[in-house]
Specification:
The structure is a single chain. By secondary structure, the chain is α/β, with parallel strands linked by helices. Strands 1, 2, 3, 4, 5 and 6 form a six-stranded parallel beta sheet that branches. The protein contains five helices and six strands. Helices cover 40% and strands 18% of the residues. Helix 3 links the parallel strand 3 and strand 4.
């Protein structure tokens, strides 16, 4: 089973989670880089709000990965103005996630990941979204409990695949 982490981090908070998960799951990680860098948290929220109102999907520098052989994609992003950044949404919408399991994780200042899940469901058409995780300024998420849950998912799916192959022989 192939796992990949795709994430964006401006301040380093989301990146800490992404890199720890990469180490814990021993998988590839890909950082989404916007074409034009975002400033501090306040200016980022203001900019993303203006981009949404203008229906602008900002460009990104990172090439779209080939996820054909991936089964699980961990998707990390900050929550800005109660949603994921527009260029992250644009990037995700160009990834073929149909039939994949998407495990979102987010960092936030004011509003958690639940605000983003409806939008994420639309972006990840045909994917199963499982085990959302967030960690914020006022409420730190339990990373260890979350990554253990992800490992169990990966282990159980691997066991099922092995059992199916073994049963066919």
């Amino acid at each position: 089973m192939k796992v990949m982490i795709i994430y964006y981090s401006r301040s380093g908070n989301t990146e800490k989670i992404a890199l720890q998960a990469q180490k814990d799951l021993q998988c590839e990680a890909l950082k989404i880089i916007p074409e034009k860098a975002y400033g501090n948290y306040i200016t980022s929220c203001l900019r993303v709000t203006k981009e949404r109102k203008a229906r602008v999907a900002p460009a990104f520098q990172t090439p779209i990965p080939n996820l054909q052989n991936c089964d699980v994609v961990l998707l990390g992003y900050p929550v800005w103005a109660q949603d994921l950044p527009g260029f992250v949404a644009a990037f995700i919408s160009q990834c073929n996630l149909e039939g994949k399991t998407v495990i979102p994780f987010a960092t936030y200042g004011m509003s958690g990941i639940n605000w983003t899940l409806k939008h994420l469901t639309q972006l990840c058409f045909g994917a199963a979204i499982k085990y959302p995780f967030d960690s914020g300024t006022f409420k730190k998420g339990n990373y260890q409990m979350w990554i253990d849950q992800v490992r169990r998912l990966l282990y159980n799916e691997q066991e099922t695949a092995v059992s199916s192959v073994s049963g066919a022989e």
